[in-house]
């Protein structure tokens, strides 16, 4: 069996350097130790890049220790907020690129000089924008990611499909052939699409010209009930209903689609670049999320050292290590690192069709409030009409994004 990647769907990811307090006070920590918080993705996927960065950093700063502590996406911000309150934040922190706006707006991230970081003049525009607030650069792009459709060539061939789908209509037509071919398996999905997968669903919204929200005169308005967004959501429901038997009450990570895919229950799914190497291994664990930023807390007494470690971590050789793990380099001049890698190049092409969440300090509250997940579930289960669910979500987004403004 072979797995192949097709069709761009959506995602941008970055790693940034930021600071964590507007006070500028000094953390109570040994000044010869730089504490770095990274997500488990790095430990599982490119630990060699982390080690190489530390070696390079320590060659420049002999005697300075680097304490890399790996975090979980579900708890890292709670821990970070507590560390800020206790004046004991790390010197470097990895954050989701949809999480940085809240901390940038609060003055919690320290301004940085782009020239201090490798390839900064060629940083991907979408990633750089997620690190910019009121004209100030407050974090450093780490890597990019893109979601694309990963599919089983052998299943497609068994259903009489000999070529890669080149349009949504063809993809659905082929999917229906797969559903017919494997109809005896009541758990089979031609396209595995969990009911709470808002990432894939927003891909439909943006592809049809819709948006999550729009800003005018400093005020945000949810836009999921626009005609374009309604068409996108309706198309997503149609595709899911025709091709998927994935649970309607779970998201794209519980389990990761690579698990049922590897067990022969799935012909295709939307996945990140770092997911597909795991698709043949049913024992694989959670490889983490790809949308990330690294930050240097303002309470850090080691800002210069922290910046030097991040510069070493985002060097071209380390970006290549991350590309080998399935990520897209953070700068356009490094695109060849992905283009020459058959495991990554389809996702690099997918990244051209990217979209990004509203750059609002309150966006993280939309995500943590499961607004989009609940909307998707309501639509796909039929609990609400597409328009009713979209209108409710839009109203909630409008309220959350304008809170405190």
Give the helices and strands, then pairings:
Blueprint (H helix, E strand, L loop, with lengths): L2 E8 L22 E7 H6 L1 H14 L4 E7 L4 H10 L6 E4 L4 H6 L19 H5 L2 E2 L2 E2 L9 E6 H6 L9 H14 L16 H10 L5 E4 L2 E4 L4 H17 L14 H5 L5 E5 L20 E3 L7 H11 L2 H9 L10 H5 L5 H6 L12 H6 L2 H11 L4 H17 L3
Helix pairs in contact: 2-11, 2-12, 8-9, 16-17
Structure in words:
The chain is an alpha+beta fold and 405 residues long. Helices cover 39% and strands 13% of the residues. The protein has a 4-stranded mixed beta sheet. It has a 3-stranded antiparallel beta sheet with strand order 1-7-10. Strands 5-6 form a two-stranded antiparallel ribbon. Helix 2 packs antiparallel against helix 12 and helix 16 runs antiparallel to helix 17. The longest helix is centred in the middle third of the chain and has 17 residues. The radius of gyration is 21 Å and the shape is globular. 51% of the residues are buried.
């Amino acid at each position: 069996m072979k797995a192949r990647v097709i069709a761009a769907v959506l995602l941008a990811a970055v790693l940034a350097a930021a600071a964590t307090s507007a006070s500028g006070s000094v953390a109570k920590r040994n000044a010869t130790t730089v504490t770095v918080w990274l997500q488990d993705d790095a430990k599982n996927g490119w630990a060699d890049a982390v080690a190489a960065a530390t070696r390079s950093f320590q060659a420049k700063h002999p005697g300075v220790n680097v304490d890399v502590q790996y975090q979980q996406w579900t708890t890292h911000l709670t821990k970070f907020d507590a560390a800020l309150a206790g004046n004991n934040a790390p010197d470097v922190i990895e954050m989701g690129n949809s999480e940085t706006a809240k901390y940038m707006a609060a003055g919690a991230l320290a301004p940085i000089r782009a020239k201090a970081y490798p390839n900064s003049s060629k940083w991907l525009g979408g990633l750089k924008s997620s690190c910019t607030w009121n004209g100030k650069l407050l974090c450093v792009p780490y890597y990019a990611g893109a979601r694309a459709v990963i599919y089983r060539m052998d299943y497609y061939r068994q259903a009489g499909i000999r070529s890669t789908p080149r349009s949504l209509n063809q993809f659905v037509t082929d999917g229906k052939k797969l559903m017919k071919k494997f109809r005896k398996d009541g758990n089979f999905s031609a396209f595995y699409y969990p009911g709470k997968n808002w990432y894939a669903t927003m891909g439909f919204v943006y592809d049809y010209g819709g948006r999550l929200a729009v800003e005018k005169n400093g005020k945000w308005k949810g836009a999921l009930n626009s005609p374009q967004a309604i068409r996108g959501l309706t198309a997503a429901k149609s595709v899911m209903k025709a091709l998927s038997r994935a649970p309607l009450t779970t998201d794209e990570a519980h389990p990761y689609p690579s698990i049922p895919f590897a067990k022969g229950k799935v012909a295709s799914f939307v996945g990140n670049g770092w997911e597909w190497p795991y698709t043949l291994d049913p024992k694989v664990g959670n490889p983490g999320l790809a949308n990330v930023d690294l930050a240097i807390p303002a309470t850090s007494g080691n800002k210069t050292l922290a910046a030097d470690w991040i510069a070493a971590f985002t060097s071209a050789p380390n970006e290549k290590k991350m590309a080998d793990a399935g990520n897209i380099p953070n700068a356009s001049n490094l695109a060849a690192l992905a283009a020459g890698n058959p495991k990554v190049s389809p996702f690099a092409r997918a990244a051209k069709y990217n979209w990004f969440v509203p750059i609002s300090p309150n966006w993280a509250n939309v995500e943590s409030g499961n607004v989009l997940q609940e909307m998707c579930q309501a639509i796909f289960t039929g609990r609400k009409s597409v328009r009713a669910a979209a209108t409710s979500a839009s109203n909630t987004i409008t309220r959350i994004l304008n809170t405190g403004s």
